[in-house]
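Figure 2 data, in text form.
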Amino acid sequence: MSRVPDRSDAGAAVVDFVLVSVVLLGLFLAVVQLGVALHVRNTLVAAAAEGARYGANADRSAVDGETRTRELVSASLSAGLLQDVAAGYEDVAGTATVVVEIRARLPLVGLLGPARGLVVRGHAFAEAQP
């Protein structure tokens, strides 16, 4: 006795593949976006710390550190991410430190995201104590 194949399942594999592919693609893109956001944050932290160290040198000022930070960020990331860079001095336990603060967009979709969504700070011991 031979059995005739049931045609009601024809094309089910294609539909299953499409449904699973959409979910996996969404998950993959979410992981990639998380990687982009972490990369942007880490780059901004490094630029703020380097700018603070640069401004803390004996022959430099906090404004020099701010300028250096802007140069580092514009060389490393898209200029559209950067919102504001501010530098100044802060007293920590009686010791003057240079502080550089960066405000930038938090990249949620590609490099687009809400303004002022990410704030990072860099600190360095000021060599020339006032």
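Caption note: Helices lie at 12-55, 62-76.
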